[in-house]
Amino acid sequence: MTLIHFSFCSAFILGLTGLALNRSHLLSALLCLEGTMLSLYVGLCIWPTSTMSFSFSLIPILMLSFSACEAATGLALMVATTRTHGTDKLFSLNLLQC
């Protein structure tokens, strides 16, 4: 395993553990989710160059566009919940209270 593969795998694992363990604020959960998406993007950029198969060069661009849409939706949800509940703490959000 090269250093690049190790760093991309460790960034993905750190993002997932941050998402699983640090769930106090919605913003921190979104940042951990963006970290995992960024590590997946880096992995998808490395994969075609390491296999010398350039037919998959469009996949990282699609992943980046989906990640941007996911970030915009997450920030819009965070702004909406902050306006309605007054905070972005996840324990104050109750799904049964709709």
Automatic annotation (TrEMBL):
One Gene Ontology molecular-function label: NADH dehydrogenase (ubiquinone) activity
Keywords: Electron transport, Membrane, Mitochondrion, Mitochondrion inner membrane, NAD, Respiratory chain, Translocase, Transmembrane, Transmembrane helix, Transport, Ubiquinone
Catalytic activity, reaction form: a ubiquinone + NADH + 5 H(+)(in) = a ubiquinol + NAD(+) + 4 H(+)(out)
GO CC annotations, alphabetized: mitochondrial inner membrane; NADH dehydrogenase complex; respiratory chain complex; transmembrane transporter complex
Topology within the bilayer: Multi-pass membrane protein
Gene Ontology BP terms: ATP synthesis coupled electron transport
Location relative to the cell: Mitochondrion inner membrane; Mitochondrion membrane
Location (main, coarse): mitochondrion
InterPro entries associated with the record: NADH_UbQ_OxRdtase_chain4L/K, NUOK/Mnh_C1-like
Enzyme Commission no: 7.1.1.2
Keyword GTP-binding listed: no
Pfam families per the UniProt record, alphabetical: Oxidored_q2 (PF00420)
Transmembrane portions of the chain: 53-80
Family to which this protein belongs: Belongs to the complex I subunit 4L family.
Function as written in the Swiss-Prot or TrEMBL entry: Core subunit of the mitochondrial membrane respiratory chain NADH dehydrogenase (Complex I) which catalyzes electron transfer from NADH through the respiratory chain, using ubiquinone as an electron acceptor. Part of the enzyme membrane arm which is embedded in the lipid bilayer and involved in proton translocation.
Protein name: NADH-ubiquinone oxidoreductase chain 4L
Lineage: Eukaryota, Metazoa, Chordata, Craniata, Vertebrata
